[in-house]
From TrEMBL:
Its EC number is 3.5.99.6. It is found in: Cytoplasm. This is Glucosamine-6-phosphate isomerase. It is an enzyme of class 3 (hydrolase). Keywords: Carbohydrate metabolism, Cytoplasm, Hydrolase.
């Protein structure tokens, strides 16, 4: 497990984008060998997406041979609804890069058989050879995707009923009207993300500080699902200074002392 600590959200976003770019370039994808990328929604990755778009427009990376799998989608929202995760991803990332729409995979919250939709998603990931790099954010309660407190740490893609706290938190996206907030979502499981070759988790803001503490300084616990990634062979947490507020001083000093090593991970390949 690695922890990369930056001073600001913008620095987190730039570093994360460089990390994704470096992985794609090192993989050297082609028409018969696509790079598979797991992607999140939410406010945390927006800066990373913006920077990746800049890299693409500057000719520093291509997504022509990249295949993506998104973490989750609301049940019952039309694909073109302004708050659907389909809309989020296309508006904030996909329409600005050269990705083939056929290589974009987002769960369909209006599928006639939601269980089958989830099973098919797992099958597509396997058929793609698994995910090379899965990126995630977390909630203040330590959930990743919609794997909320109490979720199984070996869970797979499934239908999930949202906790009242999550519904209330998401009401701001629906004009503050709780009745308009979806109560269910389709989500990859913790086990689905754990199967990825590598996982990068972005954690920013003081409101995520206790979750980061639980994620890396205490034991694995299904009430803090992000803690499961302590057991992944290649997890990297990327956070800003505010998110370290609940960490022990020696933890912060240790990982800051490794920044010269971590920064080599995002250098341009020779």
């Amino acid at each position: 497990m690695r922890l990369v600590i930056h001073d600001t959200y913008d620095q987190v976003s730039i570093w994360a984008a460089k990390y994704v770019r470096r992985h794609i370039l090192d993989f050297n994808p082609g028409p018969d060998r696509l790079f598979t990328l797991g992607l999140p929604t939410g406010s945390t990755p927006l800066g990373m997406y913006k920077k990746l778009i800049e890299f693409y427009k500057a000719g520093k990376v291509s997504f022509k041979y990249v295949k993506t799998f998104n973490m989750d989608e609301y049940v019952g929202l039309e694909r073109n609804h302004p708050e659907s995760y389909h809309t989020f991803m296309w508006e904030n990332f996909f329409k600005h890069i050269d990705i083939n729409p056929e290589n974009v995979h987002i769960l369909d919250g209006n599928a006639p058989d939601l269980v089958q939709e989830c099973n098919n998603f797992e099958t597509k990931i396997l058929a793609a050879g698994g995910i090379q790099l899965f990126i995630g954010g977390i909630g203040p309660d330590g959930h990743i995707a919609f794997n909320e407190p109490g979720s199984s740490l070996v869970s797979r893609t499934r239908v999930k009923t949202l906790a009242q706290e999550t519904i209330q938190a998401n009401a701001r996206f629906f004009g503050g009207d709780l009745s308009k907030v979806p109560t269910q979502a389709l989500t990859v499981g913790v086990g689905t993300v754990m199967d990825a070759k590598e996982v990068m988790i972005l954690i920013t803001g003081a409101h995520k500080a206790f979750a980061l503490h639980k994620a890396i300084e205490e034991g694995v616990c299904h009430m803090w699902t992000v803690s499961a990634f302590q057991q992944h062979p290649s997890t990297i947490f990327v956070c800003d200074e505010d998110a370290t507020n609940e960490l022990r001083v020696r933890t912060v000093k240790y990982f800051k002392g490794l920044m010269h090593v971590h920064n080599k991970l995002v250098e341009d390949p020779e």
